[in-house]
Please model this.
Amino acid sequence: MPNRAWYKITWHKVYKNLGGELTAQLVGLNKKDLTAYLNERIKVPAIIGDRLDFLVELYRCLRRTYSTDVVKIWFKRKRVSLDELSPQEILSNGWRPLAKLPQMVLRLAIDLEPKRKR
Model:
C-alpha cells in the first residue's frame, strides 16, 4: 500500500478530476475547507486524510474501467446492492472508511475492474 506522501500527491489529482464540489462532498467538507487542507494551509485531520485516501483507492479502481466523466456519474447512481443508495449518498455523511457501507462501495468498484491475466 502506498504511503501517506504518495496519497497526498494523489489527493490533488482526484480533486482535479472529480471536481472540487464532488470531492468536498464525498469527504464531508465544503470546497473552501478542502482546498485549504489540500494546499496545506490547515493541518489535515486524520479522518479527512483517511477519507481522501479511501477516495483515491476508489477512484483508481473506477478509472481502470471508466472515463472520468463516467466515474462522476457512477457516484450518483443508486444501486440495489447498496440498499438503493448511491455511493455519493453513502460517502456524504460522517462516514468512516472501514465501516460496512463504504466498504461495500469499494467492493463494488473493485468488482468492476478488468480481471488481470496471470
Q: What stands out?
A: DSSP finds seven helices and no strands in the chain. The CA atoms of residues 47 and 96 lie 7 Å apart.
